[in-house]
Amino acid sequence: MRKVYKNIFGEVISKSNAMKLDEYHLYYYEEGSDFIKEIEFINEDSIYNINYFLSDGEDESQVVDYLKEKSDFFDIEKKETDDGFIISTNKLYSLSVDELPLISKTVFKTDDPENFICSQVIDNETQEPQLERTVKCWYTNDENGEKYAAIECSYQEDGKLELAIDKTSDPEHEENWTHYDYDTFQDLQERIATDISYYKTAALLPKEAYQK
């Protein structure tokens, strides 16, 4: 593993300079590549959080045991791609609270890996999504060309849309946003040129992704 020290602003620093700081981050890269394997968040010489990126074929239980030796608080992330989508599964452990992790799945489009379109919390026992804790976002650009979450959606326990908040008319002022629900969703669709049917239910991926 190749180690790289960074300050809290993400700037590369030397090990000796890192040792002088109260807080810094230690990145572990796979040898000969730019793939980040692990990030340790260190404050006053103590690791208070770890992000670990799981590779295909790795034994997750061994990774958990390895991370437990370092910190009580860590996140294991595994990414998969599925026909134009990136699905990131995160298992967030807080061992001082619970031995079981908080599990979530987050979906991004492969051409926009920065902005999530769906986030779901997964039940630890059933491994099924808790649909009422699902959030989806639809993006467009504002008048300055900056991408923003123009429509934010939440859902009921049965997965039907509970509330869609449309910010497109005035992104900066909440009092001018428009609210839609499952029954009025078609009114929202008529305002948007692209097909946004994906946002009517809490399904993790659009129907066409399941069909292929």
Class per helix and strand makeup: mainly beta
Spatial separation of the terminal alpha carbons? 38 Å
Helix content percent band: 10-25%
Query: Quick one: how many beta strands?
Result: 13
What key phrases describe this protein's structure?
mainly beta; globular; 11% helix; single chain; 4 helices; 13-stranded mixed beta sheet; 212 residues; 13 strands
Helices and strands in order, then pairings?
Blueprint lengths: L1 E5 L5 E2 L1 H5 L3 E7 L6 E8 L2 E8 L6 H9 L4 E10 L2 E10 L3 E12 L2 E11 L12 E7 L5 E9 L5 E6 L11 E3 L4 H5 L17 H5 L1
Parallel strand pairs: 5-6
Antiparallel strand pairs: 1-2, 1-3, 3-4, 4-5, 6-7, 7-8, 8-9, 9-10, 10-11, 11-12, 12-13
Description:
There is one protein chain. The chain has 212 residues and is mainly beta. 11% of the residues lie in helices and 46% in strands. It has four helices and 13 strands. Strands 2-1-3-4-5-6-7-8-9-10-11-12-13 form a 13-stranded mixed beta sheet. A hairpin with a 5-residue loop joins strand 11 and strand 12. The longest helix has 9 residues. It is globular. It starts with a strand and ends with a helix.
Task: Provide a short characterization of the protein structure.
By secondary structure, the chain is mainly beta. The chain has helices at residues 15-19, 60-68, 185-189, 207-211, and strands at residues 2-6, 12-13, 23-29, 36-43, 46-53, 73-82, 85-94, 98-109, 112-122, 135-141, 147-155, 161-166, 178-180. Helix 2 (60-68) links the parallel strand 5 and strand 6.
